[in-house]
Description:
The chain crosses the membrane at residues 12-31, 51-74. With 119 residues, the chain is mainly α. Helices cover 62% and strands 0% of the residues. It folds into 2 domains: 2-40, no CATH class; 45-93.
Amino acid sequence: MAWLFRFNHILAVPFSGSAAAGARLIGLVPIDFTLDAWSKTLESGNFLKSLWKFVRTALGTIIIMTCLTLAAYARYKEETAFERRTFYIYYLIFIMLPRGTSQYERTHGHPYVYPLACL
Length: 119
């Protein structure tokens, strides 16, 4: 239950005046209510860029999870229940194979090494 107070404090700080925030006087409710912090944040292009990256990541995650669920369904069902099962399985295996140089390798001149690959 203590996390609710912390979360409320995080929400109260941007709605408070700068003098109250600088003096650390903010408790559960904002002091000297103002929207100046939010107007400066929204005027900056960085916030909108970050928001767009978040939306792209969330949509990409939803699409990938949907594709993985459908692939798992194709793998799970038998050939009699799912007619083109063998074709889909071979197709999924084929698209997992490496396809030559990546964009990273063309740009940086060496292949990307995954940080946990040596464990």
